Structures are given as structure tokens and as C-alpha cells.
Fold each of these.
Amino acid sequence: MLSEFQTAEGIILKVIPFRDYDQILAIFTKEAGLIKVLCKKSRNKKGGAKSHYTPLTKVELVYKEQKGEIFNCHEISILDFYRHLRTELSHLNAACDIIQLLYQTQLVGKPAPRLFTLTEIYLKKIPQTQFPDILTTSFRLKLLKHEGILAHPLVCSVCLQPLHQEAFFFRGEVFCRLHYPMGASHLRENEINVLYQLLNCKNYQELTEITLFSQTKNKIERYCKETMQKQ
């Protein structure tokens, strides 16, 4: 019922100033997916935060559902500032990349418990890897898989042929050598193998054994971006 209080744990993805003293928090929760809550009197008149409601903060909150997209926040407490992600710029950039992807792709009120668990695992592992780009690129691919947009193997958009040795992508679609349009980007055999490894890795150890060159990373991230924009 709309009048009942709900309790959830979640990660703040975005903070939006509202009126003179309030904030709207976009929070990705395990129980309810992405929700937006109004926190009243959570900042001072000059816009400085009175509390620590910033993106990349894990919180526990009690909120009341109501008609519309924004719920009223009754109580909120900080569980984790993710300080381990704030000591190195590369770690912070990787973490911010992940939460921005979630904010851009998740629908309000759509539960995604498996994606929430995956997010927590990746945030925890960022400081443990020498190359955080491997984690963020893998997360992009797994996010597309979670949304039902990407599967293994890729298939040509025209003839539906499975693509194992190479692939071409253009404006969010994938093609084989016989059907790719002019201007398509080419994923060679070694690059498509890396894509599949990043997509299908089942543990952190497998991820650390992958070599991701910058050119391959840029191609995969471009493919992910174009695919998301097409949806």
C-alpha cells in the first residue's frame, strides 16, 4: 500500500538540489531497484551539504511510497562512504563510471537484485586491480547482458549468423563480414575473444588474467554506448 513505510539499503547514484534546503536522491537499492526520494532540510541555504548525502555512498533509508516518481524519505543513515574508492583518482573514476551507468540505464521501481549484488562486488574489487578499466569495461558488458540486450555469441543483425572470429558494429547493431555497412567498426578475432571473456568471466581471478589493450577497450566501450543509445 502507498501509505506504508518501506526500508531499503542502497547506493546513492545522483543528488539533485531541490528548493532552498532539500535534496532529491536517486538511490539504487537491492529491494526496489532505482528509487528517488525527497530528503527535506538536507542542505543549507547556500547549497552546502549539512549531511553526507553524496553520490557513491551506501545508505539505509526508511521511506514512504506515494503517487508519482519521488517518494518521501523518513529516515536515512550512512552505512559506507566507500573510502577505499576515494584514495586514488583512477579508483574514484572507475566507481563513478559504474554508478553513472546504473543511473542512465535503470528504470525507476524495477527491482534488479542480481545487478545490485554485481555492483557491490565490482566496487569492492576496484582497489585490488592494477587496471580498473578492465572492471568498468566488464561491468558495461554484463550490464547489457543483464538487460537482455547482449548475449553470447553475438549474431549478425541481418543473417543471424553467430560471430566467433570477428564482428562489425554500427549504431548499436552487429554484423558479419558479408553484411556490415560502410563505416562499421571491426572487432578482430583477438578483440572479440576479449569481449567474450569480459562478458562471461565468473570470478575476479579470471578477470585479472585478461589483457585489455586501449584500442580494444575503446572499441568495446563504443559498442556498449551505441547499443545503449539505440534502446
Amino acid sequence: MATAGVELRFTVGTKVQCKTGHGEDGWSNGTIIKLWYREERWPAGRLAPYQIKLDDGRLIFAPLDDDRVIREPTGLLKDGKLPVTVLTGFLGAGKTTLLNYILKANHGRRYAVIENEVGQVGIDNQLLKDGYGQKTEESITLLDNGCLCCTVRDDLVKAIKDIVEAAKAKEKAEPGGKKALDGILIETTGIADPGPICKTFYGDPFVSNYCKIDGVITVVDSVHFIEQLTRERSAGAVNESAQQVAFAD
């Protein structure tokens, strides 16, 4: 434990990593919510320099102000969890056109792209490759096994893990260089329900430790949207268009 009055390294609101024995490499992400924390059952004068609220909601304290116990986030998590944007919309609405524009734009950011294809020919994937060829910062992972929904969610988890591990390896190989990854973009198929995709980021410990849902963007075809929204469906079938719009930010 520490002694009150000693100057501490961090202030309330600072994002930190704590040695908890859980999470990646035994470190968990959190935010400092109180300085010089104590509990009633502790002996008089006993204080912990920090109380921290972990990203999973747990409250803990750091017994020492030491890098072995609490430290600044490093590597991919230096600026917090990786933001993930889900790009959805019905078939032909223009999702890939928007995504291809993002990949071509000179914004200086590095994105990983997870694209989902249903058909045998990955036409959208070819468009992405055309754009990707002009910039080397982005990486593309193609999931060619159906909709990104609960039945294939494990494949999404694997794709995210592969992307994170590749980015971590790149940062180790280039210490002190540019951040290896700024975010992840997921383009769903036109018939995908975004709900199960978003749940993935709360259900897998590795994914929830590194990533957070930053937003859901739904692209709508203004000419055909009403028709897509109101077309007849079999009993119990999901109205994908309605779900996609409902999940949009």
C-alpha cells in the first residue's frame, strides 16, 4: 500500500491497464475513478493509490503506483479499444461503393476490413482489391461462408483475432513507428441482421478486450427501400431491411 501525500502518476479519468491475471497477457483495461482509495475494514492509515473501474464493469484497486501493477495502455490499446464500425444495408444499396471510397481516401488511417460474401463470385471483394491496391495500410479478410450471423459468429471472432495478432506483430517489428491499426470495418451481406454481429463484441473475452462497437452505419437505397421494407415474407422470417435500419446510429 502507499502513503497519502505522495504525488501519483495518474489522475481520475485516466485510461490504464491493470495486472489482474485476466485478459490478454494478464492485463485488463480500465479507468481510474478515485485516488487514495480505502475500505472500512482496512487498518487506519492504509490506502491504495487508485480505484479503477475495469471495462467489464468490475471495480478493483491498485495497491501500488508501479508499472508492475498499473500502467499506461500500450500498443494497439494505447488510445483505447479498437473502434469497430459495422457497415450494413440491403443488396445493392451501395455499401461496397462507400467502403471502397474509404479505402481510397487519403485520411492517413490504417483500417482492417472484414468483408462477407454470399455468392460464389466475390464481386465486392474485387472492387475492394482495386481500391486496396492503391494503399498498403489496410488489410482485407474475406469470409466466404455465408451471412455474418449467429451461425458463423465463430468465424468473425477468428478473423478479428487474426487481424489483432497481425497488428501486434507489426508493432513489435516496428517499435516506435506508426500505430499498426486504427480500426476495423465490417461490411455485412445485404441479407444480414446486424444484431448477432454486435453481440460478438460482448460475448468473446479476447474480442471485448481489444475491440468496441463504435457505430453501425446502414446504407439505404432511397428508390427501392420502401419496396424492400414492405415485401411479403414467410411467417416468422426476419425483416432484414427493418433490422438494419433499427440498428443504425
Amino acid sequence: MPSKGVPSRRLDFVLAAQSLFEEKGFENTSVDDIAARVGVAKGLFYYYFGSKEEMLEVIIERLMDEIDSSIAAAMEKKGLSAIERFSELISASTDVTSRSKVLLSYFQKERNQACHLAMEKRAMNMIAPALEQIIRQGNEEGVFDAPHPISTAIALAVMLNGVRRSFPTDLTAEEVVHVAAVMQHLSERLLGARPGTITAYHDQLP
């Protein structure tokens, strides 16, 4: 059985499949397509992966790792205020998902609920602790007034994950602006921040 690591040839398959899934959709991409993109025989695909679905799980895991790394990098930046760090966190958590909508939307289908729930749990475990840290920093700086940082962080994380999961793709530019304004208002209320303080959503929504 091949290693579960990602040697160069296995990574070639992963990157080729990710590109094809984004271009054509998961269900419209065949194993033959993936092998052709890599430039190898179809049989080699099955040396590394048991199925196309298994490969997709590997790709999603890589995407979640990217989000995790982006969030960690945002939290490790020196000299940021709580407001600035909040903006960095929103940017980090939306950048990867905005580039991978096709893949993530496939996992939201009913038949993929187990994988979807696992993804949601991991996303919550990544973003809620970071939000709690930012909220505590904002309380200390006097820009937030959130007496229950953990509960507030969970509420914000639920909102952010919900938007990431099911943001409509057919909204007009004006409607997106209105959604961003509502999210700003809700976040400011949850954080106990002055109106106009949280502007991160305006540049990050699709």
C-alpha cells in the first residue's frame, strides 16, 4: 500500500485533479481526464488512490490545512491591533475557500453529509479560538466590550462558517454590499464595538 504522504507523483495527481475539478466539476471529471492531465497511464492513479472520491477527500484536507496555516500566520503577525487582526483573520479564512467553491460545494450535497460535518467541525475548531484571542485583545484595548469572549467567538464563527458554506452566487453587487453591511452590524453588536469599526467584510465577500 502506498504511503499516505504526498510524494511528487501523488502530488501531481492531486494538483491535476484539483485543477480539473475546478474547471469541469467533480462529477464531470473522469479518472481518465486526471491521468491524461498528469501524462501517465490510468492504472497509476489507482496505485495512489482507491477512487476519485478518496482523492477529493485528500484535496479538501489540503485546503483545510491551507486555511489553518493562513489563520495561524494572521494570528502570529506582530504589532496588529484587534481590529486589524480581525480583518486579517477574515481575509485568511475566506481566501482559500473563495478559490475552491466548486470543491466545497460538492461536499455540501446530502450524500456527503458525514464529510461535510467533519469539515464544519474542523473549521469551527480553527476559527473560534482565534476569534476568542482577538476578542480578548480588543477588550483589553477598549475597542470591544464583549464580556463573554468564548460565547461571542462561537457565535461569530457560526456566522462566518454559514456564510462561507451557503453564500448565494447570484446576488447583484448591490446585494452583496447590503449583506456585508448586515454582517458588519451584527459583528459590531456581538463585539460591543462602535458602529463603523468592523469593515473587513466589504472586501472579502464574493
Amino acid sequence: MAAGVAHEINTPLGIILGYAQLMLDDFEKNSEEYESVEIIERQTKACRRIVADLLRFSRQTESTKAPIDINAVISDVLAVTEHNLNINKITVERCFEENLPTIYGDAEKLQQVFINLINNAQYAMLKGGSLVITTSSNDQVVKVTVRDNGTGIPAEIKNKIFTPFFTTKEVGKGTGLGLSVTYGVIQEHNGSITFESPVPAEDGTEQPGTQFLITLPMYREKKTTENMSLQ
């Protein structure tokens, strides 16, 4: 149902956005009329982002799965997000396991997972901070941790963060679907996602911030009947 509603809304939004952008050419910049149309354009784009989140949440997009290197997926995400993080005084530390086993998944959907987690971390570090992304493997799984030293997650909302439409952000700043989409994508990949906030330290103390842990099964190529007969 959500996907159907999203598709129905998307068409008129596209028309409104198109006409708003055409109208911008009719007014002088910095005029009252221009600024009013700019508001229409900006809010229409915000609505389209909500629609996109609804479509992702409803999982109505086909998956294109293949053996992939999760280190490469994360590196691709950082290639487009790290500059903005640095501008906001957030340093990024990569702790990637070399020769990490591949997983079987949809690279585009997994990129969205890490974009969501990085965006949340950035929102929690409005005054700057540190983002550490670690990959490792053991027991037939690949693990990814995304840790920040931001404000953390209050105890009273820890059981709500994966709930659709739940958000602590200001109106217009978030749809409350990012972590729901993230949870759904990881489930689709037969993995798991958990979090800790504050973050336990090696010395037994707790450090401010939040750490998400994602586990995904390693890829194991299926043996065909022909291959088995040759062994």
C-alpha cells in the first residue's frame, strides 16, 4: 500500500517541481516572488525525499545481488560523504580488514545502509567529532562497526530507533525512515544490526557516542552438479 501511495504522490510532485523551477526564470533573484517560489521548490524536493524513503521502506525495489567486497561499498560511500564530514569537523578513521571475504548482496542497497548510518552519526556530532568504521570477519560472517563519539542515544528511545517514522530530528530534517530502511535491508541480506550507546571501552568503562554493529554472512559459491562430478 505504501508503495502505491508513494507512486501516486510522486507524479503530481514532479509536475509541481517542474513548474516551480520554470517560474524561477520569470522573477528577479532576491525578489519576494523569487524567494516564495524557491520555498515551493525546496519543500517539494523535501516531499520527494519522503516519497523515496517510503518506496525504500516498502521494499518495492528489485534487488540485484552479486558477490561484493563490503570494503569497496563503504569506500564508495565515503568518497561522496567524507568531504562534507570534514567540513563539519568530523574526522573519519578506516580500520578495514585486508582481504576481507566477500558477501552476497545488493551493493546499492548496502550503500544506502551506510549513508543512513553516517548521516545519523553526523547529526549526533554537530560540534564535530570522530567517526570510526571497522570491518572484520570470523565464524563465517563479515562484521562492520560504525562508531561515533557524539551525543548518543537516550535510554528512553533505544527501543524505538528502528520504528518506522520515529525521529528526534526537527520537522523537515528527517522522515524517521532511515534506520527502518537500514534494518530492512540488513534483514533482506540475512544479516543482523545491533547498537550500543554509550560505547563500552576495552578498560571496562563507557565512552560517549553510539556504535552500530552489522553482521552479514560470507559468500559461499554454490557447487554445481558438474563441478561436483569433476572432484
